């Protein structure tokens, strides 16, 4: 059995939260075939675990993720899930995913950040779409970044490859918030407390609904929203939620 140090991605579950850690610090947590494979496996495990309410994605060492493993690409190594498959796994996971950045993100690492539902970074962390500066295109990650970022900011940083800070990442929509490094754990925990208080099925359906509504014509969106609303208002979970509200107690699912 391999030790934790030998595993490219770690999974730890505590009080309903699955923490997934990219564990290749010597390679700046680059997305090698081994890391992509292990990350997809850990995401699937967390998604299938009924006791997991949400996922935190972070990195070991001083870098969150450096993007593609250029040494591996140069050597011709292939295999593992593709970047689109990996980003889709995060987007379609039936539980919220929070990126808790331990350090800077570059290139494909920004795609991971954008695919997550929420993202928090220390204010000393930096970001950069470095692709154009090494002669390639940030093609696949542009698909997820366009759903998060201000269009002008996205054009600027993808076209220039310049580095920007966490405050600018928050302003542009790439991340949810930034904070002093010493407050990162507390800030993330504040988000996780909300997930622990949420009813699991309602939480999962809300995540999926937000994705479905993106770009949907208004009339179609209202039809779908009405269907979802009626289904959940008539559910046993909603009845329990109302009882808990009137009885001034936590609902049965609260952790």
From TrEMBL:
InterPro entries: ClpP/crotonase-like_dom_sf, Enoyl-CoA_hydra/iso, Enoyl-CoA_hydra_C, Enoyl-CoA_Hydratase/Isomerase. CDD domains: crotonase-like (cd06558). The keyword Cytoplasm does not apply. Keywords: Isomerase. GO terms for molecular function: isomerase activity. Belongs to the enoyl-CoA hydratase/isomerase family. This is Enoyl-CoA hydratase/isomerase. It comes from Thermomonospora curvata (strain ATCC 19995 / DSM 43183 / JCM 3096 / KCTC 9072 / NBRC 15933 / NCIMB 10081 / Henssen B9).
């Amino acid at each position: 059995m391999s030790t934790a140090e030998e595993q490219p991605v770690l999974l730890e579950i505590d009080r309903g939260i699955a923490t997934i850690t990219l564990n290749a610090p010597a390679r700046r947590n680059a997305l090698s075939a081994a890391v992509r494979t292990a990350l997809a496996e850990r995401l699937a495990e967390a998604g299938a675990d009924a006791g997991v309410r949400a996922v935190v994605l972070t990195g070991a060492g001083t870098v969150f993720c450096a993007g593609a493993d250029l040494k591996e690409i140069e050597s011709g190594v292939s295999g593992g899930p593709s970047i689109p498959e990996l980003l889709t796994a995060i987007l379609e996971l039936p539980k919220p995913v929070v990126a808790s950045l331990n350090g800077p993100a570059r290139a494909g690492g920004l795609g991971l950040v954008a695919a997550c539902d929420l993202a928090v970074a220390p204010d000393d962390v930096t970001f950069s779409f470095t692709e154009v500066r090494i002669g390639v295109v940030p093609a696949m990650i542009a698909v997820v970044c366009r759903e998060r970022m201000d269009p002008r900011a996205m054009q600027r940083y993808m076209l220039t490859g310049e580095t920007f800070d966490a405050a600018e990442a928050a302003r542009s929509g790439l991340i949810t918030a930034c904070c002093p490094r010493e407050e990162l754990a507390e800030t993330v925990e504040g988000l996780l407390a909300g997930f622990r208080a949420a009813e699991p099925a309602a939480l999962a359906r809300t995540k999926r609904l937000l994705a479905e509504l993106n770009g949907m014509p208004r009339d179609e969106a209202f039809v779908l929203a009405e269907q979802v609303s009626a289904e959940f208002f008539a559910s046993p979970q909603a009845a329990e939620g109302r009882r808990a509200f009137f009885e001034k107690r936590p609902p049965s699912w609260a952790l």
